[in-house]
Specification:
This protein is mainly alpha-helical and about 300 residues long. The protein contains twelve helices and no strands.
Length: about 300
């Protein structure tokens, strides 16, 4: 008796889940294309990410290479040397190349700091909202205390002690920015912990850890993602401000805030040194905010009734 070839059949629920995910992706893409501001924001973010990833291929010069004979040369369209698309700084370094590589620094710090702050704040917020009692009181008083200290003062104080570096900057920005995530997560958990599905899980004997991880956590993820998408822009601005003050990424690593600081003494004679990095900061932050606003309007069901082409 010959053996029949076996046929692998996916379970119905698995195939249905795959189709649901595909439909969700298509819906998100359709909503993105329908929103003018969302499309513009996404295009800007995509361009910045592409520039960061392809900087070694796009940048014509080494961002740290100094050539004094090319110092303070204007952009090529103003009569500058060939190849100096956006001019050079006071040390002869190519501005365009430094902006390309500076996008790497801004995105790494922005995304990493948001990951640290989001993970810490999300965890503490869920614990505070679900457990309540003295845990909630201690965590919220700690949050109130941190909010009473200006962020820039706290960051300057910590970085002044531990010293400026890429790793220290990420940790400081993350630890000083967890409060927003904790408050958002706590407010969501307070409304979820008395819902029927949570009470049913508790009645079936599920542990508090399992309820927070399986039943409550996924329902708080969407607000956390929305907040994180908007906080990336704030982290980039904070990094630029600290770099401007000399407490960011140490040279010779290119940083947009450090480039603006380098050009502040040459605003009359070589305005391009500070202007183009400043424009890069503005455009990047604008794109992230536009995309974050669209993401908030799309993922938050309470705002969907206001959606439309903008």
């Amino acid at each position: 008796m010959s053996e029949q070839p076996s046929v692998v059949v996916l379970p119905f629920h698995a195939a249905e889940e795959a189709r649901s995910r595909q439909a969700g992706v298509r819906r998100m893409l359709r909503l993105l294309l329908e929103s003018r501001t969302g499309s513009v924001g996404f295009a800007i973010v995509l361009a910045v990410v592409t520039a960061a990833l392809l900087a070694p291929l796009i940048a014509p010069y080494d961002p740290a290479s100094q050539e004094i004979t090319r110092a303070l040369k204007p952009p090529v369209w103003l009569g500058g040397p060939s190849g100096a698309l956006l001019g050079t700084d006071n040390l002869g370094r190519d501005i365009f190349s430094r902006i390309m590589y500076g996008s790497q620094v801004s995105l790494i710090i922005g995304l990493s700091a948001v990951a640290v702050a989001g993970s810490l704040g999300f965890t503490l917020g869920v614990l505070s909202g679900y457990l309540g009692g003295w845990v909630d009181a201690v965590l919220m008083r700690l949050a109130d205390f941190q909010l009473s200290v200006p962020f820039i003062v706290l960051a300057i104080a910590v970085l002044g002690v531990v010293g400026p570096s890429l790793q220290n900057l990420i940790v400081v920005l993350g630890i000083t920015s967890w409060v927003s995530y904790a408050r958002v997560a706590r407010s969501e958990v307070l409304s979820l912990r008395e819902r029927e599905f949570v009470m049913a899980a508790r009645a079936l004997g599920a542990s508090s850890f399992r309820i927070m991880l399986i039943h409550i956590g996924p329902n708080v993820t969407a607000p956390a993602i929305i907040l994180a998408s908007l906080e990336v822009a704030r982290m980039i601005i904070s990094e630029a401000a600290l770099s401007f003050l000399g407490l960011g990424v140490p040279p010779p690593a290119p940083s947009w805030g450090g480039m603006v600081a380098d050009g502040r003494n040459y605003l009359e004679s070589a305005w391009w040194i500070a202007t183009f990095p400043g424009i890069a900061i503005v455009i990047t932050v604008l794109g992230i905010n536009l995309f974050g606003d669209w993401l908030r309007d799309t993922l938050d069901p309470r705002l969907r009734r206001w959606q439309g082409r903008r």
